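[audit] Reproducing an earlier prediction to check determinism. Same input, same settings, fresh worker. If the tokens differ from the archived copy the diff job will pick it up downstream; this log only records the rerun itself.
[audit] input (638 residues):
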Amino acid sequence: MSSSEAVLPSLSTLVPHLSHSKPCLNSLNSMLHFKSDTDARRKRASGFVQSLICSRKLRNFRRAYSIQGIDGASHGKTKISHLKSVSCKDQQAESVSRITADNGHGTIVAPKIREFEMVEPIGGSASNDKLAAGGVINDTFGKASVDSTEDEAWNLLRESMVYYCGNPIGTIAANDPSGSSILNYDQVFVRDFIPSGIAFLLKGEYDIVRNFILHTLQLQVILSWEKTMDCHSPGQGLMPASFKVRTIPLDGDDSATEDVLDPDFGEAAIGRVAPVDSGLWWIILLRAYGKCSGDLSVQERVDVQTGIKMILKLCLADGFDMFPTLLVTDGSCMIDRRMGIHGHPLEIQALFYSALLCAREMLAPEDGSADLIRALNNRLVALSFHIREYYWIDMRKLNDIYRYKTEEYSYDAVNKFNIYPDQIPPWLVEWMPSKGGYLIGNLQPAHMDFRFFSLGNLWSIVSSLATMDQSHAILDLIEAKWPELVADMPFKICYPALEGQEWRIITGSDPKNTSWSYHNGGSWPTLLWQLTVACIKMNRPEIAEKAIKVAEKRISRDKWPEYYDTKQGRFIGKQARLFQTWSIAGYLVSKLLLANPDAANILVNREDSDLINAFSCMLSANPRRKRDWKGLKQKFII
């Protein structure tokens, strides 16, 4: 089979304009060293491949392969509509002495690829006769006796596995036999697979995670800039929200079929929102895979390295914003419906910070990455300062806001964002405990979203975006407000719920997000695993143990719902799917981590000493100081 070259837009000049000229941040570049154990790494990489079609003959399951270039030129077979196949298995490539090479025309040319070989997975491959339509394995575990809740959960998790050309590639969102409308719950969602992937890693089953990482990467590389909505395409580097394995007949051969991956980048989603969090979760899972399996060859591959850079390029691009936080639209993360989180939601910032740290740890050092690393380091410091300084709220800070002066036009203003004290909601005055605090949900000019968003606060602990004192204070608040945040089923996705006129204005009268339901104050069992990681990091596992015991009382009996309704989490959600995969996986990850707390290190980001020094530099520089006009030497011609 002939080899192919793939040409992608240049990343050698990736965001050179993102470096800052501020003295403190300039000194940061000398303090922050690029962390990479290059001597221990093997320079193995694999180039970009458009597609590798896997065909199944009905009688002998013969597989045929063809490779299609990134530019859309076909080699061997014709493209099938908008469905693009990607490699059925990992491909081994020639060793290369460098990751990328500039061809002199502003493009990066990947190394040429050898012919592909099928490699048996470590855990063995599943027989094709076990595959149901769409790639989901048939029910082979339901008849087994269930000795415990954990045994049942593992059986259900394995039943949800999706296979692509005979190899595991992910888990479907829900496997509810009673569901009257499937919608897209039979697809593999990137964010939903994260707890499933972590569970398999902790169990020592690495192949499904490796396959997921590589196949979603190829969907990004191949398709992210080909997807359009009303003739507009998203930025290059976007990861899909989900994908579905489809089995279709081969052209001109009625006796054979092929598996193809059909991704959704948001163009088919409800509300047509691109998933900002998919790429961030993908980077976090990639690091976890390397740390847990010890297999660093995946993150060293040329396509993986380029995929990381494309995600970073998309996130670090300059815009009109004055803040280091990512500006996103409503519904671009776990809360994927209109809930008033547009702007700079905490969940996205926590995942962004974690992904930046993970990417810095995995990126291979090379000349073309210097500007990217500099921009990444500068953003880390600015983002941590911004969140810790302006998002944090406790009783003292609440009293400060209550006494804010407004309409301050100066460089040394205290109320920088012109927050009006009347914005403080009455519920918060009574709800805020004397001991404890949290990071608010959103911050924009003249607007603070005081709601408590669980995932953002928990992952701020895990990623070290919150300080040690703030992290303990968040857990203190969770303990103090246990009846509101946990109650009969952990864990409230946000608190409090929007009600009345506020609900009508902010959600648009969304019938699914009524008060204390779904994203509007619903209780989500999958959040158990993020709570567990945060508690283990802060050496307070007893909080997670208590929450798990609450869940174990009824989650199995209730058939593993997607979410629970009512203020106390007493009812199964009115539109909740049963046997929701990330509810199952979240429980399993929590149990596995409590049994082996050291394993949480594959997810935790420890605070970097260089970042602490740079953060201290920013504080000592006094951000409220007046501008030094004497330092302005530039002359302007009028």
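[audit] rerun output stored. Observation attached for the diff report: The CA atoms of residues 125 and 167 lie 6 Å apart.
[audit] end
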